Amino acid sequence: MEHPPRRHQVIDLDDLSTEEIEEILATTESMKEVLSREIKQVPALRGRNVVNMFFEDSTRTRISFELAARALSANIVNFTARGSSVEKGESLIDTVRTLQSLGADIVVIRHSQSGAPYLVARHFQGAVINAGDGRHAHPTQALLDLFTIRERLGQVRDLRVVIVGDIVHSRVARSNIWGLTRMGAHVTLCAPPTLLGPSQHWLATWPNLTISHSLDEAIKGADVVMALRLQKERMQAGLLPSLREYTRAYGITPERLAQIGEGTLIMHPGPMNEGVEISPEAATAPNSVIEAQVTNGVAVRMALLYRLAG
């Protein structure tokens, strides 16, 4: 049986098959075992050059990619637009070609413009990983969320997952919808109309989604509740009456924490606005896996670097 050609890029989860996702999650388990050792390093990518191209500020994603590359013994270079030739007007294409000429094997890119990783992939001969682009996608976050859910609940198929918050502007939501539905979960999107957009927009691509404007209704019987970060500029843009009103209607408050129950996972991609979309009590509850998400991010990114670099 002929094997499919090796993948050289992960831009989103829309073109990953169920089998590919399963293989990535299985590799993540192996990488997590490496990270549990006293010496958290293997020589799998020794001599390979990984470049972190971050055109947006980041803490969790950038550092976890750096730790992942070092754990695989790769050479890691952190590129930022500030202080580079980008400030002199160099285009993204020229920057990528320069990195390729300097010997980069893998480019990890975060960019404020949706679609920037596709442009990089067209002009770079090595592997490309999207670390978040505009409102479009954040595939490694979705993969670590899938891994965390399966690690804690044993499966993803047939689970009821509620994603609540600023969905229309969220790259995390989009990638998670692709990953969760592909792996057989039942997904409910919950948000005020101004942060959800027309339901037809979502149902045209994912007809099996459930749309809700009531979090109290959506969380009934849920296996996972995933809160999204609310960017405060949404209120300044007039999309919300106030942060207090948003918290009352859509926040994971102590009262809703009691409704959710101990068997339901609470997730958040970070960084959190505690007291807005999630209360401190919910963020640190026994069924919160927010810290596990951060920890698993390193193993997932190790798995991707390893698989793409071959």
What does this structure look like?
The protein has 310 residues and is α/β, with parallel strands linked by helices. It folds into 2 domains: 145 residues, Rossmann fold (3-Layer(aba) Sandwich), CATH 3.40.50; 153 residues, Rossmann fold (3-Layer(aba) Sandwich), CATH 3.40.50.1370. The protein contains 13 helices and 10 strands. The strands form 2 sheets. The protein has a 5-stranded parallel beta sheet with strand order 1-5-4-2-3, sandwiched between helices. Strands 8-7-6-9-10 form a 5-stranded parallel beta sheet. α1 crosses α13, α5 crosses α6 and α5 crosses α13. The two termini are 20 Å apart. The model has no long low-confidence stretch (mean pLDDT 93).
- Give the ordered list of helices and strands: EHEHEHEHEHEHEHEHEHHHEHH
Strand order of the largest sheet: 1-5-4-2-3
Classify the secondary structure makeup into a structural class: alpha/beta
The low-pLDDT segments are none
Helix proportion = 40-55%
- What is the CA-CA span between the terminal residues? 20 Å
**Mean pLDDT across all residues, rounded?**
93
Structure in a nutshell:
This protein is an alpha/beta fold.
Overview features:
about 300 residues, alpha/beta, Rossmann fold, 5-stranded parallel beta sheet
